[in-house]
Amino acid sequence: MSALPDLVAAAAQAAGAQQYPTGALYVVATPIGNLADLSLRAIHVLALVDAVACEDTRVSAQLLRHLGLHKPLLALHQHNEREAAQGLIDRLQRGERIALISDAGTPAVSDPGARLVAELQTAGLRCVPIPGASSTLALLSVAGDAQAQGFRFAGFLPPKGEARAQALAGLADARDTVVLFEAPHRIADLAAELAQRWPQRRITLGRELTKQFETLRTLSCAELPTYLDSDAHAQRGEFALALHAEGQPASEGLPAAAEQTLVLLLEELPLKQAVALAARLSGVARNSLYARALELKNADQ
Fold first, then answer.
1. What is the pTM (predicted TM-score) of this model?
2. Which residues contact 218 (CB under 8 A, 6 or more apart)?
3. What are the residues facing 152 on neighbouring strands?
4. pLDDT in tens, 113-169
5. 261: Cβ–Cβ under 8 A, 6 or more apart, which residues?
6. CB-CB neighbours of 81 under 10 Å
7. Chain-centre distance of CA 88, in angstroms?
8. Pairing relation of β-strands 97-101 and 51-54?
9. What pLDDT, on the 0 to 100 scale, is given for residue 259?
10. DSSP at 22
């Protein structure tokens, strides 16, 4: 399938006014499933660059053909990233523009590219981000984890052994939403591990995000294995999971030491500053401390 004849021209009209320096690497996010998520700015950059460094030349060639573009493709993957970096440095130092893309999503996050960017920074060369579709942010936007203080991207956990056990243990007592990726042949094992460790903890599962058979479901970790076994298709495709923050009741169960710290800080500092400092000192979730601080302030009035 080829792109509309005027698509590249429309992209140039929309995005072309910005400066696109030579001798720079453009880190371009590509769609994670739905081709319509490719931004006009990404299309303009792909049309502008002299070459495209990519994780899989076959996948990238298909994307460029859809856009009606023909660019030299340079293989850059986890097995050759260090060696390929020097060739790209030489080309950039000659004034070329080069785009870096992965098979899907943003390079250098879960896919190759971080080592290349580090090498270019050391060489004093410029890297320009061209943002776009993200499975992590797409999932977080519909996870509804209102008690989280932020999020942490964990990506793919080690597949087995002590390294996996340690990685799972590191997810305990999280005050942030933790985003995980998992392969279809390991999703059942991960579900069983999460159900055993944190049966009551909430989790949002995203399968085949942005694709035709996209599935989103929020449930407890205890319910996850049964859900995956309930349908023959439930374990197929690509998975992103948002493990919700554990949190605490708003003002119940506040440790005595944390409450004492909060009371003392409220005597000297404005409420928000006192809560922030108490959270750092005690390790208690900020939303729990904030709720308790409001109760204490109201009681004094």
1. 0.78
2. 143, 144, 202, 203, 204, 205
3. 178
4. 999 999 999 999 999 999 999 999 999 999 999 889 899 999 999 988 899 989 998
5. 278, 281, 282
6. 18
7. 26
8. parallel
9. 85
10. S
